[in-house]
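STRUCTURE:
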C-alpha cells in the first residue's frame, strides 16, 4: 500500500527525461528536509494503479506553514500539529493533498479501526512532512526529470528508519482488522505474497515501500532498528520512535477504540464454553455396558428358575379365538376354492381398477422433497430464503489431477526457488481454460444457442451478464481467463539481477494475495477474476499442505449457476447446461489426448444419481426377483418321483404367488396415485422386496401345510383347501395385520420419503393378504385339481400314469428340523448357551436497520455493540471445533458504513452542474464531487434514517473496483432484487455470510446445524431487545445442506418413535388374535425388539450410517421380523404337546421349516444378487442392511425364540386337549406330524 500518490488531476506535462543516479554524502540534521514539493512522474514505475508522482530532492530547512497550509497539515497529519504559526513541515500543500489521496486508498481497509488507520498514516506523515525529515530518511537514488523544459532532480528511492517498538505496535494494531466483505484480514492484502498468516512488521512495511505493488510511487527501503542498535544506522540518522497507539486506545483526535472483531484487546472477558459432558459410567466402566450385563444376568436367572404353571382363563380364551378364526377362514377358503375362475376374474378387475391410477403417478426425485417435510423448520427457512434471496446458486465442480507428471523447481527472481507440482504447468492450465469455454448447446426454450451467460450466477451484473460477468472460479481466473496473460513474460531487474518473470511469478503472488489488483512483478497484472471478485486459493487448487499452493496436486474448476424454481423456464436451461457440462466431461475423459484424471459433479448429480441407481440397477433387481421366483417355483414342488416332476412342480403356483405380490404393489401404487400421494424410486425398489418377503412366507406356510395334510374321508378337495386355510390363515392374518398397522403408524413420520414408503407398504401388505385369501387360494385350487388328474404343468394336455403317493410328502426340511435341529437346539445345555457433517445468518423482516441502535446491533466495526450479530459469530468462530464456524460473517452493514466514510472516497455527490446532489461514482474523476457525509471526531460514523434511505440504493448499485472495495454479494444480501427495496420500508430481510469449517461426515454436518441454530437463537433474543423490533423477528442459519441434515437432529428420537409405533401393533394384534394371550404377545414383542436392536448394532459395525434410508429399512426390519417370529409364536401357542420343550420342538420343526423356506431362503438369494449392484446406495442400504435383517431374523426366529418359548411360553396344553376332544367328535383328526392314520 503506497504512502504517496496523487490524483490524476496532478499529472505532470507529457515530456520527461530520466537519468537515474546514486546519491552519496547525504546530510542529516534536525530541522532540515531531504526533499520538498513534487517533481513529476517517476519514469521507472510503469503500469501503476495511480500516477507515481515523486518529490524533488531539496536539502533545506523546514518551512513555517501559512494558514491554508497549516489547516491541510492538521487534517492529514495531525500528529505534526504544533499550533498555528508554530508548525513547520517538509511538504507542500500539493504533497499533502497527494498524500491524503494515497492514504485514503489504504485506509479504506483500515478506517474501521481508528487507531490502526492513525498508526498507518503516522510514519508516512513523518517521512513525507516531518520538520526533521532528514534525520529519519536517507535518499539513496535520484533521477533528473525534464518536464516542460525544466530539469529537476527527483527522489526515486530512499531508506526510512524507524524503531522496532513503533513498527511492532503499529503492526499489532492492524493485524486483526477484518474486511467485512470477505471475512478475511486487511493485512493479508497489504503484505504481498506472504498474506496474513506469514505477515510480519518488516514484510508489511516492505510491501508498502515496493513500487511494483501499483500504489507506491517510489522505492522505500524500510529499516526497522531495535532500540540501542547504532551500528547499522548512518551518521546523523535517528530511527523514528514516536508513539504508536494500541488498538484498544482512543486516537488523539477523539477516535473510539477498535471493535472486538478488529482488536482482541477490546474484547470483553468471556467465559470459555462449558466442557463437553463426560461419558456415562458406573464405577469407571461404560454405564450402558453395565446395564446390559445386569439385564442379561437377570434374564439368565429367569431362564434357570422359572417353571411352567397351570392353565388360566386367558389360555382358554386364546383357544376360543383360534377356533373362531379357524372356522371362519375354513368356510371362506372352501367358498373361494369352489369358484376359482370367478374369484380370479374379480381379483383381476379390482387390481386393474386400482392400477389404472398409475397413469397419474408422480415420481419424486428432488432430494429436498424426498427427505425434508414441507412444514419442517429447515424447509420453511429454505423457502423463506429462496423467496427473498432466490434459491442457493447451483454448484458445478471439476477436480483435475495429473498423476505421473513430475514436479519441477522454478527459480523466481522475486520469490526465490519454488517447487511446482506437475499439474501446475502452463500447458495444463491452458488445457483447463480451453475446457471451461467449451460448453454451449442449442436450447429449445430460448430458440437459440445457449451458453454459460444465460444461466450463470453473475453477482455484479445479474440483469444482463456477459461471459466475463459469470462467477467461475479456477486457476486461469488469476489471469482473467486470458491466454495472452498466461503467455505474458517480461524481463525484470531487482537488486541488480535481471531475469524473466512469467505466469509462475504471478501465480505465486496471487495465491498469497488474491485481493490484489496488481502484482509486484513487472507483469503488472491483476489477481482478481474477470467477474470482479477474488479467487481464494482453496477455490483454485487442492491437495496441498500448510499453504504450499505451488505443490498442489489438483486443479479446481467451479461454475456457479443461478437457481430457479422448477416451473421457471430457466430451470430447464440450467439443467440442460449441467447435462452438457457432464456430457463434455465424459467425452473429454474418454479422449485419447486427455492429460488429466478427474472427478466432477453437477448440482443435478444427486438427483441424477437417484435416477441412475434405478436405471443401471434395474437388471440387478430383475435378476434378484428372477432368482426368488425360480427358488419359490422349485421349493414348492413335492418331487416324489422323477416321472412326476412336471406334475408335482409348482411353477405356476410360484408364478401366481409372484403375480399376487406384483399386483398388490401395483394396486397400492395406483390407489395412491389416484388420491395424489407421490411415489419415489425408493418405493419402487423396497416395497416389492418387502411384500415379496411377506407374501412368499405366507405362500410357503399355506402350500407346505396343504402338502403335509391328508384329505379326510369323503372330504372334497375344496373342503380340504378350506380346512388347511383355516389352520394357517389366522397366522397369516396375525402377521399381515401387525405389519400393515405397523406401516400405517409409520406414516406418522415427518420425513416425506418415510411417510410415503409406509403408506405404500401398508396398503400393499393389506392387498397382498386379500389377494392371497382370494386369488392365490383360487389358483391353488386349480393347481390341485390339475395335480389330482396327473396333468403336467404348462402342458396340461399331457397326463402322467405314475400314481400319486398314498401319504403326504414332508419334503426334506421338516425331517431335518424334527430329527436333528430341534432336539439339538432345545437340549438343556444348548438352551442356556443360546441366550448368551458457506452458511448464511438470515434476518427476517421487521428489524429496523436504519436507526443507530439497529446498525450497532449488527455491525462489528468501531462503536458497534460488543455483542452484536456479527460479533457473536466472531466469538463462535474462535472455537471452530465446537461451533464449526471457520470464518466470521461478512456484513453489508459494515460495508455500508465503510462506504459512507469520507476517508474511503466511495460515497460522493455532485456539488455543481445539472447533476448537483446526485450520486457521483468513485471511479469518475471530477472536481465537482464532494463527500456524502462528514467524518465525526470520534470516528464512529452512522447515517441518520434519512441518510440511510438516501444512500443505500446508491451503495447497492455501486460496482466494486479498486476504489470501491465492498462485498460483491452485497446486492444479493439485502432481499434479492433492488426493486423489492422501498425507501419507506427499511425493515427488510437480509443475510450475513459466514463459513463453516470443512465438514465431511453426517455427524459434523448435523452438529454444525445444531450449533448454528443455537447461535442464531441467542442472536435473535438479543436483537429483539432493540426498540420497535417485533416479537416474531428471528435470525436463522441457512445453507444448502441444512435441509438434508435436519433429519439427523431428530432422527434418533423420531426413529425410536416410529419403530415403537410399529412394534405396538405387533404386540396388540398378537394378543387379540391369540385370545388376549399377553404372554405370547410379550415374547413376540421382545424377540422383534431384539432383532431391531441387534440390526442397529451390526449397522455400526459394518459402516452403515443411520439416516432416513436406514430408518425405512429398520421399519422394514420390523415387518420382516414379524414373519420370522409371529408364525412360530402362534404355532407354539396352539401345540397340544404335553411339555414346553416338546411344543417348542414341534413349532420349530413344522413352522420353523416353513419360515426358513418361505422367508430366509426366499430373501437370501435375491439379497446376494444385490451385492453386484453398482450404486453405493443399493450395496449399503439394500444388500448389507437386508442381509443383516434376514440373518438376524433367522437367528432370532429359529434359534432364540424356540428357546425363549421353551422357558416362558404359554401353558395351554390341557385346555387345548379339551377343546380338540370336543371338535374331534364330528370329524376325525389326523396328526400331520406322523400321518399314521392315512
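SEQUENCE:
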Amino acid at each position: 500500500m503506497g504512502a504517496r500518490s496523487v490524483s490524476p488531476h496532478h499529472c505532470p506535462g507529457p515530456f520527461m527525461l530520466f537519468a537515474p543516479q546514486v546519491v552519496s554524502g547525504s546530510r542529516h540534521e534536525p530541522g532540515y528536509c531531504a526533499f520538498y514539493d513534487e517533481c513529476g512522474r517517476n519514469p521507472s514505475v510503469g503500469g501503476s494503479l495511480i500516477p507515481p508522482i515523486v518529490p524533488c530532492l531539496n536539502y533545506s530547512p523546514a518551512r513555517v506553514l501559512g494558514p491554508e497550509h497549516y489547516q491541510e497539515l492538521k487534517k492529514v497529519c495531525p500528529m505534526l500539529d504544533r499550533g498555528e504559526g508554530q508548525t513547520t513541515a517538509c511538504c507542500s500543500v500539493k504533497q499533502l493533498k497527494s498524500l491524503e489521496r494515497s492514504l485514503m486508498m489504504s485506509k479504506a481497509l483500515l478506517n474501521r479501526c481508528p487507531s490502526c488507520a492513525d498508526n498507518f498514516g503516522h510514519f508516512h506523515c513523518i517521512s513525507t512532512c516531518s520538520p526533521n525529515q532528514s534525520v529519519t530518511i536517507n535518499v539513496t537514488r535520484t533521477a533528473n526529470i525534464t518536464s516542460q523544459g525544466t530539469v529537476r532532480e527527483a527522489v526515486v528511492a530512499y531508506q526510512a528508519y524507524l524503531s522496532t517498538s513503533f513498527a511492532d505496535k503499529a503492526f499489532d494494531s492492524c493485524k486483526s482488522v477484518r474486511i467485512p466483505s470477505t471475512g478475511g484480514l486487511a493485512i493479508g492484502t497489504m503484505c504481498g505474497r506472504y498474506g496474513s498468516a506469514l505477515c510480519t512488521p518488516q514484510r508489511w512495511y516492505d510491501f508498502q515501500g515496493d513500487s511494483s505493488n501499483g500504489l507506491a510511487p517510489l522505492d522505500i527501503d524500510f529499516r526497522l532498528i531495535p532500540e540501542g542498535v547504532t551500528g547499522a544506522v548512518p551518521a546523523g540518522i535517528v530511527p523514528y520512535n514516536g508513539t504508536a497507539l494500541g488498538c484498544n486506545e482512543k486516537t488523539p483526535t477523539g477516535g473510539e477504540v477498535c471493535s472486538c472483531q478488529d482488536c482482541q484487546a477490546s474484547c470483553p472477558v468471556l467465559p470459555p464454553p462449558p466442557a463437553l459432558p463426560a461419558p456415562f459410567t458406573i464405577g469407571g466402566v461404560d454405564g450402558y455396558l453395565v446395564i446390559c450385563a445386569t439385564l442379561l444376568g437377570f434374564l439368565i436367572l429367569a431362564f434357570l428358575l422359572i417353571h411352567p404353571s397351570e392353565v388360566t382363563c386367558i389360555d382358554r380364551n386364546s383357544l376360543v379365538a383360534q377356533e373362531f378364526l379357524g372356522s371362519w377362514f375354513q368356510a371362506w377358503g372352501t367358498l373361494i376354492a369352489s369358484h376359482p375362475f370367478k374369484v380370479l376374474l374379480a381379483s383381476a378387475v379390482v387390481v386393474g381398477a386400482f392400477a389404472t391410477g398409475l397413469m397419474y403417478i408422480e415420481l419424486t426425485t428432488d432430494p429436498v422433497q424426498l427427505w425434508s417435510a414441507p412444514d419442517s423448520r429447515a424447509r420453511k427457512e429454505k423457502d423463506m430464503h429462496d423467496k427473498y434471496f432466490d434459491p442457493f446458486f447451483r454448484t458445478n465442480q471439476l477436480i483435475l489431477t495429473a498423476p505421473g507428471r513430475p514436479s519441477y523447481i522454478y527459480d523466481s527472481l522475486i520469490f526465490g526457488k519454488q517447487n511446482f507440482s506437475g499439474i501446475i504447468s502452463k500447458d495444463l492450465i491452458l488445457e483447463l481454460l480451453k475446457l471451461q469455454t467449451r460448453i454451449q448447446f442449442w436450447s429449445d426454450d430460448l430458440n437459440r444457442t445457449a451458453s454459460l451467460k444465460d444461466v450463470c450466477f453473475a453477482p455484479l451484473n445479474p440483469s444482463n451478464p456477459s461471459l466475463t460477468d459469470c462467477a467461475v472460479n479456477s486457476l486461469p481466473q488469476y489471469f482473467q481467463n486470458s491466454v495472452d496473460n498466461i503467455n505474458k513474460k517480461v524481463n525484470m531487474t531487482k537488486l541488480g539481477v535481471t531475469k524473466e518473470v512469467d505466469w509462475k511469478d504471478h501465480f505465486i503472488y496471487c495465491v498469497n494475495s488474491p485481493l490484489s489488483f496488481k502484482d509486484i512483478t513487472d507483469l503488472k497484472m491483476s489477481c482478481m477474476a474477470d467477474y470482479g471478485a477474488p479467487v481464494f486459493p482453496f477455490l483454485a487448487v487442492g491437495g496441498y499442505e500448510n499453504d504450499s499452493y505451488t505443490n498442489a496436486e489438483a486443479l479446481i474448476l467451479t461454475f456457479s449457476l443461478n437457481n430457479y424454481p422448477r416451473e421457471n423456464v430457466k430451470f430447464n436451461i440450467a439443467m440442460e447446461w449441467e447435462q452438457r457440462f457432464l456430457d463434455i466431461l465424459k467425452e473429454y475423459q474418454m479422449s485419447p489426448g486427455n492429460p488429466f484424471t478427474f472427478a466432477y459433479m453437477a448440482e443435478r448429480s444427486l438427483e441424477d444419481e437417484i435416477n441412475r441407481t434405478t436405471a443401471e440397477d434395474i437388471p440387478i433387481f430383475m435378476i434378484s426377483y428372477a432368482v426368488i421366483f425360480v427358488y419359490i417355483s422349485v421349493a414348492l414342488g413335492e418331487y416324489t418321483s422323477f416321472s412326476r416332476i412336471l406334475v408335482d412342480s409348482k411353477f405356476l403356483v410360484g408364478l401366481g404367488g409372484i403375480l399376487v405380490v406384483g399386483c398388490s404393489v401395483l394396486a397400492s401404487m395406483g390407489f395412491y396415485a389416484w388420491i395424489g400421494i407421490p411415489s419415489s424410486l425408493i418405493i419402487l425398489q423396497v416395497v416389492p422386496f418387502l411384500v415379496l418377503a411377506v407374501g412368499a412366507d405366507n405362500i410357503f406356510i399355506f402350500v407346505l401345510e396343504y402338502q403335509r395334510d391328508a384329505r379326510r374321508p369323503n372330504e372334497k378337495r375344496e373342503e380340504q383347501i378350506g380346512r388347511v386355510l383355516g389352520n394357517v390363515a389366522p397366522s397369516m392374518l396375525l402377521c399381515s395385520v401387525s405389519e400393515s398397522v405397523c406401516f400405517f403408524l409409520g406414516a406418522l413420520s415427518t420425513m416425506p420419503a418415510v411417510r410415503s414408503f409406509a403408506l405404500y407398504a401398508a396398503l400393499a401388505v393389506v392387498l397382498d393378504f386379500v389377494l392371497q385369501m382370494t386369488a392365490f387360494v383360487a389358483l391353488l385350487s386349480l393347481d390341485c385339481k390339475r395335480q389330482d388328474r396327473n396333468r403336467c404343468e404348462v402342458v396340461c394336455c399331457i397326463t402322467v400314469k405314475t400314481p400319486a403317493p398314498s401319504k403326504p410328502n414332508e419334503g426334506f426340511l421338516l425331517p431335518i428340523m424334527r430329527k436333528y435341529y430341534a432336539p439339538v437346539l432345545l437340549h438343556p445345555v444348548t438352551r442356556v448357551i443360546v441366550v448368551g457433517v458457506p452458511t448464511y445468518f438470515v434476518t427476517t423482516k421487521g428489524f429496523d436497520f436504519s436507526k443507530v441502535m439497529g446498525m450497532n446491533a449488527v455491525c462489528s466495526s468501531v462503536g458497534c455493540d460488543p455483542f452484536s450479530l456479527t460479533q457473536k459469530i466472531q466469538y463462535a468462530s474462535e472455537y471452530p471445533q465446537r461451533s464449526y464456524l471457520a470464518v466470521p460473517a461478512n456484513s453489508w452493514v459494515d460495508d455500508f458504513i465503510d462506504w459512507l466514510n469520507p476517508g474511503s472516497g466511495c460515497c460522493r455527490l455532485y456539488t455543481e452542474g445539472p447533476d448537483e446532489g446526485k450520486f457521483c461514482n468513485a471511479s469518475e474523476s471530477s472536481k465537482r464531487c464532494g463527500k456524502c457525509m462528514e467524518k465525526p471526531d470520534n470516528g464512529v460514523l452512522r447515517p441518520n434514517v434519512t441518510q440511510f434511505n438516501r444512500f443505500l440504493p446508491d451503495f447497492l448499485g455501486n460496482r466494486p473496483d479498486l476504489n470501491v472495495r465492498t462485498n460483491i454479494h452485497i446486492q444479493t444480501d439485502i432481499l434479492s432484487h433492488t426493486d423489492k427495496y422501498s425507501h419507506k420500508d427499511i425493515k427488510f430481510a437480509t443475510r450475513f455470510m459466514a463459513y463453516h469449517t470443512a465438514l465431511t461426515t453426517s455427524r459434523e454436518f448435523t452438529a454444525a446445524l445444531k450449533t448454528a441454530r443455537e447461535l442464531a437463537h441467542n442472536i435473535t433474543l438479543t436483537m429483539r431487545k432493540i426498540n420497535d423490533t417485533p416479537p416474531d423477528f428471528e435470525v436463522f442459519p441457512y445453507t444448502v445442506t441444512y435441509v438434508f441434515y435436519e433429519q439427523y437432529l431428530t432422527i434418533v428420537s423420531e426413529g425410536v418413535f416410529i419403530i415403537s409405533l410399529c412394534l405396538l401393533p405387533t404386540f396388540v394384534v398378537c394378543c387379540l388374535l391369540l385370545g388376549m394371550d399377553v404372554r405370547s404377545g410379550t415374547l413376540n414383542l421382545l424377540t422383534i425388539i431384539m432383532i431391531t436392536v441387534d440390526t442397529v448394532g451390526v449397522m455400526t459395525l459394518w459402516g452403515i450410517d443411520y439416516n432416513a434410508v436406514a430408518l425405512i429399512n429398520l421399519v422394514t426390519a420390523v415387518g420382516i421380523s414379524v414373519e420370522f417370529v409371529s408364525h412360530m409364536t402362534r404355532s407354539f401357542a396352539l401345540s397340544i404337546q404335553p411339555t414346553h420343550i416338546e411344543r417348542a420342538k414341534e413349532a420349530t420343526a413344522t413352522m420353523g421349516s416353513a419360515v426358513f423356506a418361505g422367508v430366509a431362503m426366499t430373501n437370501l438369494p435375491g439379497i446376494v444378487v444385490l451385492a453386484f449392484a453398482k450404486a453405493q446406495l443399493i450395496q449399503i442400504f439394500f444388500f448389507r442392511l437386508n442381509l443383516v435383517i434376514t440373518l438376524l431374523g433367522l437367528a432370532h426366529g429359529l434359534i432364540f425364540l424356540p428357546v425363549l418359548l421353551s422357558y416362558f411360553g404359554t401353558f395351554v396344553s390341557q385346555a387345548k386337549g379339551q377343546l380338540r376332544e370336543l371338535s374331534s367328535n364330528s370329524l376325525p383328526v389326523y396328526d400331520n406330524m406322523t400321518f399314521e392314520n392315512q
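REMARK: The longest strand covers residues 150-163.
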